[in-house]
Write a structure and sequence with these properties.
- It is built from four helices and no strands.
- The chain is mostly helical.
- The radius of gyration is 13 Å and the shape is elongated.
């Protein structure tokens, strides 16, 4: 999850604390909308597993990190 927070921070220009809050908010929202069995898998995915789960983590970070483009600073 630290890598995801780093990506959000870099892409949006917000502080690490703000990025952590944003990431946790999105993850909580996702978990609340999912069945318990899948919510548990999301915890494993975000936790940075290895093997197939690690690959999914990389994909999820890319997708969620891409959301940073929606929040980029406008000059």
């Amino acid at each position: 999850m630290d890598e995801l927070i780093k990506q959000v921070t870099e892409r949006t220009g917000i502080s690490e604390e703000q990025a952590r809050t944003a990431v946790n908010t999105v993850i909580s929202h996702l978990k609340n909308g999912l069945p318990a069995s899948i919510s548990g898998q999301l915890d494993s995915l975000i936790g940075g597993g290895t093997g197939a789960v690690g690959d999914l983590t990389s994909r999820a970070e890319g997708i969620i990190g891409g959301l940073g483009g929606m929040f980029e600073k406008k000059d």
